[in-house]
Structure formats: structure tokens, C-alpha cells
Amino acid sequence: MRKSISLVIFYFCVQWLFAQKSENTVSISFNNSSLISALQSVEKKSGLKLFYAEEWIPDKQISKTYTDKPVQDILADLLSDTVINFYILDEEQVILTRNSMIYDRLPEGYFGKQAERTVQSDFEEGESNDAPVFYNTDNNPNREIETVRIGKEKVNNSRKVFQLSGYALDKKTAEPISNLAIISENSGNGVSTNLDGYYEIKLRAGENLISTRSITNENITKRVIIYSDGSLNFNLAESLESLGEVQISSNATKNIDNANTGEEEIDIENIKNIPLVLGERDIMKVATTLPGISTTGEGSAGFNVRGGKADQNLILLDEAVMYNPAHFFGLFSAINPFTTGSATIYKGNIPARYGGRLSSVFDIATKDSDTREFQGEASIGPVTSSLAIQLPVVKEKSGLMLGGRSTYSDWILKSLDEPQLKNSTASFYDGILKYNHEFDKNNKLSTTAYVSDDRFSITSDSIYNYQNRLLTLHYTHRFNDRNRGVLILTNSDYKFNIDYDNNLQDSFESGYHINETEVKFDMKHILSSKHQFDYGVSGKLYNVDPGFIKPLNSESSISDISLSREQGLEAAAWFADNFKVNDELLLSAGIRFSSFTSLGEDQVRLYDSNSPKNDNSVTGYEEYEPNEPIVTYGGPEFRLSARYYILSDLSLKASYNNTYQYIHTLSNNVTVSPTDTYRLSGYHIKPQKANQYSLGLFKNWSTNEIETSIEGYYKTSDNLLDFKTGANLFLNEFVETEVIQGEGKSYGVELLLKKKTGDFNGWFSYSYSRSFLKLAGEFAEEIVNNGEFFASNFDKPHDLSLVTNYKLTQRFSFSANFVYQTGRPITYPTGKYNYGGSEYVLYSQRNQFRIPDYYRLDLSFNLEGNHKLEKLGHTFWNFSVYNVLGRNNPYSVFFVTKDGEVEAKQASIFSIPVPTISFNFQF
Fold first, then answer.
1. Are residues 543 and 680 in the same domain?
2. Residue pair 588/641 in contact by the 8 Å Cβ criterion
3. pLDDT tens digits, 773-807
4. Are residues 352 and 436 located together in one domain of the fold?
5. What is the CATH number of the domain that holds 213?
6. What distance in Å separates the CA atoms of residue 184 and residue 213, rounded to the nearest whole number?
7. How does it sit in the membrane (predicted)?
8. Coil, strand or helix: which one is 234?
9. What pLDDT digit, counting tens, does each position of 811-843 carry?
């Protein structure tokens, strides 16, 4: 008994002495010392010997002071934000380990717990995981597998499952690899990368075999030993091999996964199958077949999104604003589909990095040139020809893309059912040049130049000309795996001219010009698997020449008039967080602060506040020097949206956003005209504002082969610009006397059914929407429709589109396109009256009636060349008939007085079937 007591006392004495030695206190200070130097100093002070490999120790600086601290506490603090653990072996030796820990005992019941483990239980959160991590370094000796350790093992870690995230990048180009499958072979759990190459996957603690699967890049396997949340990037070489039939589905679940409402992407490659007028591929026309996007009529430029005006859409080409994206009176788009890489439309929740428009953003990006080999594509149609080529400049470093289109025939105008247009002529062209250069995997430069030019003559004595010009420069820098920034410089220029020469005394030249220059810096930061930040700043300078007119010759009686230049400065800063609350709930919350300052030089009229603005109510003038601020507007813009998974393939989305728009169009035309002018907000014209609420359900079927969605929205607007009855807007220096600012509201429900793959594919879209305007000023001349809401010019309640494609064989396919729309509103004459001995026409309330409904069916047959690998190029023929039914759809309805009677006339663009053939060749 005494002997046992003596042994126990001896044991506790040894333990006490060891504890005293291991908890030996040290006082030490570091001033900007390296971590290795700090560890060496701890060795000298404590008398302990530290064993480690120097390559494990990260290059970091230490500036800390410790006073009478135990050695293990100092080591724990120094190594806290590294993957290094330590173990005090005895009184004189400390072993440092990377990632893992050294255990001197196993937890109680360890072997019993191990026997009960299953793969399924590994992914059940919340259970304690106090067991050490073991892994077999010879898991499969027949294949070489790189072992990667992630994170740092900790004592009593309660988590069994960790999250691994990162990017998949092309090894040569550093471009993101989208739709790459990343699979855990242990559990069968798998994910795919998004458009940025980003992925997130859950892994159980310890050893995991991770494999990549792709048909465009090499497939690799890594042994990942994970101890905590961490990141791992995949840099994969391109892998090309001969394959049989393969279907690639990119971002198959994006429609239900992301938080944005009202987001649409256009498949640029497959629009070639959609039968459109004159066989032309047209991104904008395809966009109008999607729910919530419509036009005021056939052949009209511009489009209306969720009840908004045409000027409320922001059209971006490589981040530069395009003011008029249409050719040939709106029959063709000014965007070349052969040089376009992607097109994304935001019509619900608009991300915080975009601003300046109320209704939508069309973000269109051109392709990067191939840097390895020469390639191109050409098209010949009945009206236009197109060519796009890609030229490597420095092998696998830089490339140049050139694209151009031009028209060569006026025959289409000759066939129109409109006497005035039969004698007209028209021509247009557009060209684009893009250079992209990769300095290294972290630095990339691209620059784009674009120009389009239209020239047409409606009558023999008038020539109209309008031109877009864009310049952009993008410099992208990847700071590290989690931070990437883009510096963007853009310049946009739009102008039009009218030459009227009838050899009489009223010959003149008139024109308009707007130019804007923007600098933007956009940053993206991945804080963790739950938070992804997007923030930045931008500044934009506007220069507007509102218009001029001057005589063409000395005999002309036209006076030389030039309106004063307008200048404005728009600035913005934004911050957004894509916050993954849990596996079901994703929030996207952003705020954008924008401001606009109208700048001098200007002379501002002051009016009597008790009278309507006109020449008779002027009380004085206020002078502003060049670049002097005249008035400033602005405020916060909130961008909030959320996605909640009801089921794995069914999500509910909701959003709210408010927006400011500081630029307006001046036009009393129903449809967009090339001669519409833009004016800036100023002393008398306030910026437009809007609030939009959206709610929708998004569901995928048949393993993501079919997408369905139903989405509703409600939008209110303020300070919408309209015109007084009989307004004169042309070269009006004091335009505030001719316009009214009112409020608007719109609401609707949108339905989309899309089948993306298979021999039979396409989509069906239907929108029920209403759009109203209210003009109720303080004075009688500022009140329309008794100050009550009335239908806007583009209010078309029912809008239905059906786009289908059936692949008969690998080479032969049929396509069809059907469109139905409610007729747009119109103001009709309802009677006549006599006043002062003269007869006048009495009109209805504004937009009280509607023109006839619109519907159209188009059919096409598509013939692809054979699919042999060894051939000069790939061909594609399109045989289409536009308006198969020969429907005489009204373009406009107008009224003329003949022999004292008012007669209604209808103008149509295509009142007969229009057959076309187009040929495409890829090389």
C-alpha cells in the first residue's frame, strides 16, 4: 500500500516538473522580424529546440511584444494564422508540423466510432469530430496523384465537413473555365464552375480524392487533405480530342441558382437558326422574343422593357454606351453577331455596378481573338454581307479581331408598300476592331474600336446621316486568388446630320452631337465561401451639342442657329455583397451612390412660379461661367435581391431596386427616330427616378433540360419627360417651355418555358403588362387627360412569342417563329367643330384607342455542311420566309383631310411574305 502511494506521488511530481518546464515563461519582443527569425529567437530565449522545415514557414513580418508569457502561448500566437501546428515532445524539444497535429493518445471509444461511420454521416453537420485525421499516402500506387493539404487541424474541432472553393483557369491563357465538373470520388458529391470559373464544394474532414471532368481541358485528380475551410485553384491545360456527338450544357442551373430576378442570356451561336427579316442574325430582335421586352412596331428602332421608354435602356458594347444600336430604320441591329461573345440582359434587379438608366441593361461583350491560329466567318445575304476574322499577333499572347458589315442593295425599299419609301435609298456599314494581350496570368489588356454609319434619303432632296463611334480600353489585374480589378476607359460618340437641298431658298444643313467619356474601376473580392464583394467607382463627362442649322448656300434664307453646348458630370460609387446565408438562402445586397452636376457655361432663364413656363413668364436670367456647377442631383440607389431554394430544382426570388437617370430623349415621335436628341438634366429638367419590385418562381425539369419561370413586377417612375400638345422641339433653346414631367407606373406578369437541348428545342414566352403615364402639372397646359393616368405609347397588354427549332438530322433542321402583340395605343379624331368661322378636328383623350393587333409567322429551313474534320471550312445555309401568312400588320395609322372629310390611312412595312437566302462560311 505504501509502495503504491509512493509511486502515485512520484508520478504527479514528474508531471508537475514537466509542466513547470513546458510552461516556462519568456519575455521577448519583435519589431518587423520575419517569422523564421522570431522562431529562432524563441529557441534562444526558452532553451527549447524547434524542429521544422524552413520551406514550411510563410514569409510574414512580426511586430509583437510578450511579457512573462508561457512558451506554448507565444508559439500558438505566432503560428495562429498559418497552417503550422506544434507539439512539445519533452522538456527540450518542440516539433512543428504542417496542417496536421501530433496526437499522444486517441479519444475514448475511437475505434467503436470509426466502425459506425458511413459516407452519408460525413455530411451531417453538427456532430463532434474529435478524432485525429488519418490518410493513406499509398492510396493507389498505380497512379501518381498530387497531395494538397488545406487548412490547419485544430483540437476539439466540432465540424466534420468543410468547404473548398477556388477557380479553374486555363494554364496558358489564365481565362476562367466555365462548366468544369469537380467531383469528390469519395462521396460522389460534385459541382460545376460558373462563368468566372469559380466553384464551391463540401468535403469531409481528412482525405478526399478530387477529380475534374471536361471535354475541353485536361482531367486531373488530386488528393486533398482538408482540415478547415480553404481554397484550391485548378490550372488546366487545353485538351483536344476527336469525339462523337457531345452536348455541352453551360450553367445549366444558373436560372434557379443566382439571386437576380429578370436576368436573361442570349445564346449567340444558336440565333442563326431563328428566322428573322431578310435572314439576318439580330441580337436585338431575338431579345424582343423574350418576356418583358417589346417594340412599338415592325421595323421600329428601340425597344421597351417592362413598360419603360426606349431611352431608359442602357446598351453597352464592351462597357461603352451605344446610343443608337439600329441600322436601316430599325430593321437591322448595329451589333455584329459574328464578333459578339456574350449578351446578358438585366431587366429586374440591376447589379450595383450599372447605373444611369431606369429599365434595363444590355451588357454585350465582343469575343477575344484566338491567339493560336487564324480563323474567320463570313455571311452573304440579300441585303448585307459580313466578315469577321481573328488573327494571332504574338503566339498564345495576343490577337486581333476584325469585323465588318455593309449593305449593297436598295431593293428592299423598292418593295415596301409605301409610295414615298419606294423612291428612297439607304446604305449602312459597321466595323469593329479588338486587340487583346495577355502579359502574364495576372495582367491582361484589351481595347476595342467600333464605328457604324447610316446614310439614307427619304425624299430626293433630303439626305440623313447618323453615326456611332465607340472606343474602350480594359486593363485587368488579378492581385491574388481572391482579388481582381478592372480599370475601364470608354468614349462614346453619336451624331446625326440632315442635308436638305431643293435648289430653293430654304436649303439647309442641320445636326446634333453627343459625346461622353467614362473612367471606371471595378473590384471583385472573394472574402470567403459566404461573401463575394463587388465594389468600385466611376466618373463620366457629357458634352452635348443640342443642335445647329445653317444655310447650304448663300441664296438660302435659313438663319444660322447653334444652341449652346451642355456639359454634365456623373459620378458613382458602389458596393455589393453576394452573401450565402445558408444552403437555401442567397442574398445579393448592394448600394450605389450616384450624382449628376450640370455644368456651365450657360444662361438660365428664370420664370414666374405662379405662371406656366413660356416667353411671357420670364423674370430674369442667371449666368454661369464655364465648368461652374449649375445644379446637382443624386442619391442612393438600393439593389436588393434574394433567392431561396424551396426544392433543389425550384427557387423563389424577390428583388427591389431604385434607379436614377440623368439623360432624356426629346421626341414627339411614337417610335425611336435617328433624329431624336438627348438632353441632360439641368436647372429646369429633373432626373428620372424609378422603383421596381419583382417576385418570381424558377423551376427546372428533366435534369435541367427544361426551364420554366413566372415572374411579376410593379414599377413606379417620376419625372418622366413628355411634351405639350403642339410642342416644337426642333432647335428650341428653351425646351423647358415645351415639355412636361410626369409620373408613370407599370406592372405585369412574365412566363417563360424554354427547352434548351434535344432535337426539338426553343422557347415560349408570354407577357401581360400595362404601362401608364400621368401628366398633371400646376397649370392647364401641363395637364393631359384631365390629370389622370393614360396608356403610354408602348402599352401593349398581351405579348406572345414562340421560337422553335427541330433538328431532323445533324445537317438539316427546321425553325419557326410566331409573334402576337396587342396593338399599341393611338389618339383618334372623334369629331369636328366650328370656331371663328373655321372648322377644326376634335381628338379623343390621348391614346384612348388602339391600332389593330399584330401577329406574324416566320419559317426557315437550315442546311449545315458536312461535319468532316479535314476540310477548308464549315458552311451553313438558311432558307427563310418572313411573314409567311402575308399579314398586313400596321406600322402606323394616320389621318388626312380630303374634300372636307377626315380619312384614316395605314402604313405597313412588310405586307407580303418575304423569302430570303443567306449563306455562312466558317474557316
1. yes
2. yes
3. 999 888 888 888 888 999 998 899 999 999 998 88
4. yes
5. 2.60.40.1120
6. 11
7. Multi-pass membrane protein
8. strand
9. 888 888 899 999 888 888 887 777 777 667 777
